[in-house]
Amino acid sequence: MNDQGTKKRKVSEEEINNFAHALVDKFKDKNDNDEIYHSEISGQFNVSSSVVDKIYIRAIALGLPKLILKQKEKKNDSTENPFINDRMSIMIGKSVINRLNEQIENDKFEVKDEFKVELDDDKIVLTRIKN
Prior knowledge:
alpha+beta, two-stranded antiparallel ribbon
């Protein structure tokens, strides 16, 4: 990670070449159409997803088998509980909003709805503000 704790978004041509050669060495025994993941490459080289694309393209030119570069599939679990992310924001899944909207006949939840927040011990209560 860089000084700000994020992955590098800008790398030199020399770094791209070095990373691409390392990628070719690592995956030389794979077959065309095998899958590799952005996150694996991003983590290995500590670079952003857009840099991974550049490394992958260069590695193909250097002889990397034509692997399928994939994003990891996001979990689509409707029972997933809301959680606090690393930015200290509460994340509520779309599936929760969809379930609520199925139960409401009128005035369904929409993008940009605002909420009043009430705190009670370890409870956080959100009440939609009607405009």
